Amino acid sequence: MKSWVMAMYLGSISVGNAVTAAVNAAIVRADGSSRLSNIQYMQLFTTFMLISAVLFLVFMRYYNDDLPTASIASVSDDVDEPTVTSRREAPDRVRTLESFDNDGKKSLSAANY
């Protein structure tokens, strides 16, 4: 999972660099000067950021999270205080850990995680 997240992060950096390179190649004249002033150049990238923020808001409007999470305050009528409940109870998990002592004998232990 950590590798996948890192790959997505580095991929987004690569896409951003490619967009910047494409914009820089598109605004250069034949003599090497820029078609945009510095202010116009910054406004162009500010507009790109605004468009991305609006697209993010639209995407989040329709995003459905089906992961088991705790509801913050599920209040019933007969209880005075809010209670925290989860959508799906996770079973107790026990992991067996193998370790070796100095003589090379294997020992087992159980740990909750």
From the N-terminal CA to the C-terminal CA, the straight-line distance is 18 Å
Helical/strand content category:
alpha+beta
Gyration radius (Cα, Å) is 27 Å
Order of helices and strands: HHEEEE
Q: What is the approximate shape?
A: elongated
How many β-strands, per DSSP?
A: 4
The low-confidence parts are: none
What is the residue-averaged pLDDT?
77
Strand content: 15-25%
As a percent range, the share of helical residues equals 40-55%
Strand order of the largest sheet: 1-2
Number of helical runs? 2
- Specify the biggest β-sheet: 2 strands, antiparallel
SSE inventory with pairings:
Layout: H1 2-26, H2 38-61, E1 70-74, E2 83-86, E3 94-100, E4 106-112
Antiparallel strand pairs: 1-2, 3-4
Structure notes:
The protein is 43% helix and 20% strand. It is elongated. With 113 residues, it is α+β, with helices and mostly antiparallel strands. The strands form 2 sheets. Strands 1-2 form a two-stranded antiparallel ribbon. A two-stranded antiparallel sheet has the order 3-4. The chain has helices at 2-26, 38-61; strands spanning 70-74, 83-86, 94-100, 106-112. The mean pLDDT is 77. It has 2 helices and 4 strands.
